[in-house]
Amino acid sequence: MPLVKRRELFKTATLGAIGGMVASSVAVATPTPDVRNVRRFALTMGHALDSSSVAPGDVRLWVPLPDEQEFQHVSPVKFYFDGNYSDAWVTVNNDCGARTLFATWSRTDRADRDRLVLTVGMDVDTIDWAPAARGDLKAWRAPEKLRYPKDVAVWLQPSAHLPVGGVVKKTAGEILGGAGNSAADPLARARCLYGWVTENMRYAEGEGCGTGDARGILQNGRLAGDSIDICSVFVALVRAAGIPARAMTGLRLGVGRESGRAAMRAVSGASGAPSALADVGGEQRCRAMFYLAGFGWVPCDPAESVKARETGMGASGRERLFGNWEMNWVGFNWGRDFALWPEARRAVNYFAAPYAEADGAPDVAFAREYTSLEG
């Protein structure tokens, strides 16, 4: 089946004109979405700051936005942002191409504004990315010589929180050495490392999504953390094994139909009763992917698999989380240890939530109200 331009694919799938389009597919170098499971979410992201709570001077806010990918599409017609800012614009001018809404409130404009507000809204269409469930991986064969495109090879490189040497390299070697010949090809190695992470790590929710310090977690032997921590350990181990890998931060928008995830927390309506809106302000989640030469990127969700194991899901259910993403979630970016633009006072570890500065002081906390409505 020829690849369809993503916007046409989403348009076609949304209209329901998919009869005869779904065919058994061969291994390709880009993800092929499953057009049978289109979901649409109206996402609203509200931000507010009491102007008197921070030092006088310019206030600057960077907000992560969903990336355009084969498994998700943001309608340009339904995307908007509004507020009492002095200036605001969308940019991808950073080393990781992270799509960002940047807003600024000047010292002068702040003088007559008690609250600084910014609201972002969009419609997001998502499609399950499920190469394993469709059997695509069965058609893949490991090349005799692995060749990675330049834009893929960068995901073999270490960063401050994702080293590939030292304890990370040692741990990967011990895991794969214990697997013997069963981990001879890249897919088997990735599966082996995924299995080790999901069987040995524990889910321990902290503030935000965790720190994602793979070396620190392996060194101290406390194999526990939030989704960014679990995904970071997996990504670092896979890179240490010579396979490109990356973690994508994002936001859970709706109930997991396949994974059986619990219902979303509803936003109270005017009468105090729950409304149809889901409160997703605390639903930051991280997922992972690795690259197979001759095939392309393969999704997996080690953090959700750890949580599923701890809540009693059987091995077959957890296996579904290797090679598949159920898209009740929207991905923002895979940036790690990089500088925002316009240049911020400090680099960010990862960019899953807004970052703000006031008069040059970093880490200003805007109040957030994020809601999602599926329909």
Name the average pLDDT.
87
Cα-atom radius of gyration = 21 Å
- Give the strand tally: 19
Helix content: 10-25%
CATH topology of the largest domain: C8orf32 fold
Spans with pLDDT under 50 lasting ≥5 residues?
1-31, 269-273
CATH class of the largest domain: Alpha Beta
Largest sheet: 7 strands, antiparallel
* Share of β-strand residues: 25-35%
**Count of alpha/pi helices:** 9
Structural class, by secondary structure, is alpha+beta
C-alpha geometry: globular
Give an overview in words:
By secondary structure, the chain is α+β, with helices and mostly antiparallel strands. It contains nine helices and 19 strands. The protein has helices at residues 6-15, 107-110, 150-153, 166-179, 186-200, 214-220, 227-240, 302-310, 315-319; strands spanning 38-50, 59-64, 72-74, 80-83, 87-91, 100-105, 115-127, 202-203, 224-225, 245-252, 266-268, 274-279, 284-292, 296-300, 329-333, 336-338, 348-350, 355-358, 367-374. Strands 1, 3, 4, 7, 11, 12 and 19 form a seven-stranded antiparallel beta sheet that branches. A four-stranded antiparallel beta sheet has the order 5-6-2-18. Strands 14-13-10-15 form a four-stranded antiparallel beta sheet. Strand 11 (266-268) and strand 12 form a beta hairpin.
Quick description:
Helices cover 22% and strands 29% of the residues.
Spell out the blueprint of helices and strands.
Layout: H1 6-15, E1 38-50, E2 59-64, E3 72-74, E4 80-83, E5 87-91, E6 100-105, H2 107-110, E7 115-127, H3 150-153, H4 166-179, H5 186-200, E8 202-203, H6 214-220, E9 224-225, H7 227-240, E10 245-252, E11 266-268, E12 274-279, E13 284-292, E14 296-300, H8 302-310, H9 315-319, E15 329-333, E16 336-338, E17 348-350, E18 355-358, E19 367-374
Parallel strand pairs: 8-9
Antiparallel strand pairs: 1-7, 1-19, 2-6, 2-18, 3-7, 4-7, 5-6, 10-13, 10-15, 11-12, 12-19, 13-14, 16-17
Helix pairs in contact: 4-5, 4-6, 4-7, 5-7, 5-8, 6-7, 7-8
